[in-house]
Amino acid sequence: MPTANVNILAVIVAAVATFVLGAVWYSPVLFAKQWMQAHGYTPEQLEAMKQRGVARAYAVSALCYLVMAYVLALLASYTQATSFVQGLWLGFLLWLGFAATIGLTANMFSDNPLAVWVIDAGYQLAYLLLMGVIVTVWH
Length: 139
Fold this sequence. Notes:
Number of domains: 1
Helix content: over 70%
Mean pLDDT: 94
């Protein structure tokens, strides 16, 4: 296997940027209302979920974003991707080949309407593009 050159600071920045993007994506500014409706959640149900605690969910998400950014950086290094366009392309391919397909398959076997997958897959596409650009350009 080729030697990989991974910029750990770029990985951390990509993970933090993904976390921030998620906060905006699932906020009232963008898709919070549509996401709640697609799931059939009431404001009271969301508040109850918040009361049970979201610290664990945020911690696991942050860890997952770090792992994804690191793996994406490894792939960028292995493929020698270093440009903005190559970062976008790598992020898109990872989304299309894995995130979109795994998410859609899971959605088909759940009680969730397709709108849930569309909102979540849109976020996954956005953050994989963002991660791809950050780890390839800031190599």
